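Page 47, continued from p. 46.
Same chain as before, 227 aa.
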Amino acid sequence: MENVKIILLDIDNTLIDFRRCSREALSNACSDLGIEYGQTFFDTFHRVNNKIWKEVEDGKAVRQDVYDRRFREIFEILGIDRDPAECEKRFRYHLRFAADHVPGAERLMKYLYGKYKLYVASNSTLGEQESRLRRAGFFDMLNGVFISSDLGASKPHPEFFAECFKRLGDPPKDEVVLIGDSPSADVRGGIGFGIRVIWFDRGVEKLDPEYIPTCTVHSLEEIEQIL
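Result:
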């Protein structure tokens, strides 16, 4: 892949394993509040969380809706009589300390470091993601951090990428590549904005045929053959 100087990296399920991290954070939050935790709670969380984030990506909700709604809806589904706002608070507190790597992420970061300017581009809150990146050992490899709570827009919306490019000094689009796992947030967002995208296909989600990534990999190690 020619002319690449800047790489935007997604965080959750690209560099840091959100499913593993959330399992730990959910268990700790439930323990704090005396809520029975098990596989049903975990599966319900991910189903509801993914649904609301998809609404954000489609412009039908805003990021704050994720934090306001997800535990309220989970508790309604599971019949749990606890304060959902307190559970959200405890979950996000514990998540700040959870930073399990996606397999191959450390190797990828060491390979890219020094060859390109590296930035993360994530839908979340700034403090939470900075904490997790530091604990993962990735923060000091980065030239900058682009997080939706700070940028005022979320992936895949063009306003998110426009603000990234503004902070980058408006480089030529052919110098920038986005690496991410989400067909909706990363592939649709990057291709829609006119930049190249390496899609990390984890075998979980399907592509929108309207937005085709520049390259597809099934492991992070494969990226070394592209960049």
